[in-house]
Write a structure and sequence with these properties.
The chain has 305 residues and is of the alpha+beta class. It has helices at residues 2-34, 43-55, 59-78, 84-107, 127-147, 155-165, 170-184, 186-189, 192-217, 229-240, 270-280; strands spanning 219-225, 244-251, 256-266, 285-291. It has 11 helices and 4 strands; from the N terminus they run H-H-H-H-H-H-H-H-H-E-H-E-E-H-E.
Length: 305
């Protein structure tokens, strides 16, 4: 029991460490690349950026105020079901957006500065490259946060509230919010190029986010044929913490009975399993294949009504 509690605490600590790492990547993308080049995108951070471009009001304060209001409405309407990790992410990102802007503006020295005195790391006229690098960092950061059960709040709260009363999917509602936010930056700059940059940023963030999330969830299936199947099965369960199913088979050429081990594991565990099998039985026959989805204990949760 004590071991299980310790493992649970360690998992939580690991989640918060990686969520913090993801938030650092996301905030640095904004502080070093998107804000100096006056690029926006969707979400509450995009709203904060537009307010900052129009009035000079710091983005971190706008981000915090809007999220605080959304969380207040969400708790009243949806109930107190939101994870404490969302609250942690909101406070942490408010702090990181502030401190990273201070660090970049104070300690980074480059020949070119933006109109409001921010350093342009890539030089003047490199808006598109800044758009790519900044949005990639944001996508990586969000991917890490989502992989470790975190959330940054924002437009997904709006989507959840609307979805409760209207028959509109969450994904569609988030997309509508993001399109409206990006399009509104035209009222600040009167420059269609900024709107296009915003949509490019949104697209890249989405692509990188999907790649990070899907890469972490990739699973593989092993078929292992060996005379030492029992030792291999025991070692896999003990060392990789993955289940093993033993099937009865018949080698059609030899007409001998054979045992087949079926193992489902995360892709990152493949090398470990190969090494383990080779150590026990160098002559074992192994087949590995990628699987589209694995749902159940230790893998993804099946989310169907």
């Amino acid at each position: 029991m004590q071991t299980l509690e310790k493992a649970k605490v360690m998992r939580e600590v690991k989640d918060y460490l990686y969520i913090t790492l993801g938030l650092i990547s996301y905030s640095l993308g904004w502080a070093a690349f998107l804000l100096p080049y006056q690029i926006t995108t969707g979400g509450v951070t995009g709203i904060g950026a537009i307010i900052y471009y129009a009035t000079g009001f710091p983005i971190q304060f706008s981000y915090f105020i809007v999220n605080a209001l959304l969380m207040t409405f969400a708790i009243k309407i949806l109930g107190p079901k939101f994870s404490i990790k969302t609250t942690y992410a909101i406070f942490m990102m408010t702090f990181l957006l502030w401190i990273l802007q201070e660090l970049v503006n104070t300690y980074v020295t480059v020949p070119d500065l933006s109109a409001d005195g921010k350093p342009l790391l890539l030089g003047a006229g490199q808006d598109f490259m800044a758009c790519i690098i900044g949005s990639a960092m944001c996508g990586i950061g969000l991917g890490i946060v989502f992989n470790y059960n975190g959330s940054t709040g924002g437009t997904d709260i709006i989507a959840a509230i609307v979805n409760k009363y209207k028959d509109v999917s969450l994904g569609r509602m988030i997309m509508i919010c993001d399109v409206f936010i990006i399009a509104s930056c035209y009222l600040v700059f009167y420059d269609i190029r900024r709107v296009i940059f915003g949509f490019v940023t949104l697209f890249i963030i989405g692509m990188v986010l999907d790649w990070i999330v899907n890469s972490a969830r990739q699973s593989v299936q092993f078929f292992i044929f060996s005379q030492q199947y029992d030792e291999i099965a025991d070692r896999i369960i003990k060392e990789t913490h993955r289940g093993v199913t033993v099937l009865n088979g018949t080698g059609w050429y030899s007409k001998n009975d054979a045992k087949v081990l079926v193992v489902l594991a995360k892709k990152r565990q493949s090398l470990e399993i190969f090494r383990l099998v080779k150590t026990i039985d160098p002559k074992a026959f192994i087949s590995q294949s990628s699987v589209i989805g694995v749902y159940g204990e230790g893998f993804d949760q099946l989310k169907v009504k």
